[in-house]
Amino acid sequence: MITGSADGGLPAALRTWRTRRRVSQLELAVRAGTTQRHLSFIESGRSTPGRAMVIRLAESLEVPIRERNELLLAAGFAPAYPQRELDDPQLAPVRTALERVLRGHLPYPAVIVDRHGDLVSANAGFDMITRGVDPHLLTPPVSVPRVLLHPRGLAPRIVNLDEWAWHIIDSVRTESVRNPSDRLERLAEELVDLVPPRPRQLPPHHLGFAVPLHLRASGTDNRELRLITTLTRFGTATDVTIAELRLEAFLPADDTTGAALAELVTW
Q1: pTM summary value
Q2: Residue 253 and residue 128 share a domain
């Protein structure tokens, strides 16, 4: 987590976030509706910004709202964004909506994960594809990336592991940049040690981040499921917990996979 409170307070934190986002002082000043001179004074500690300016700068840098609270604290202001537990009664409508989305996605697998990739909820489709996974990997907290790439997880059944594993690792690293987290960085390092080396040459059908998952069904069923993944966030959430949730859904890449999932998943 980047707060700057231990090494320069708000000025240091703003400089760190601006560097991380690769944004110049001039560009940030334009985004936030201020001047480069004013921003320079803030970053040098010569000017103390108001609460609204701190929020504007954080929004302009796309700082996650958990870290926006830290910036406000570093500037001497109270946090602006609440953080409730997911079982808080006030979040009941959100929980209901999420469960409806998971059920509505059936028979295709879908999960909801937190900022660290830990499982919050899953539907029966995900339960189906994870049959046979070591129970230890499915003991909370369940790291979904670890379940996918661990030798006692889904890795032995992933036909294109060489390619798809690095898609997952790159996604974890990208999330670590978006939401700075020591846990995510350690997870990425762990996953690197679990999978084959990154291929030196990309396959001719490589489509960048649109990497399909070729997964053999569990048990004695050797059918190959071809899946593509999608990612959904709460783009307008003002609660820290909700803003950090992600819906990761697996969709059939062909009609054969769609028919197989409809047959294999118990609704």
Answers
A1: 0.85
A2: yes
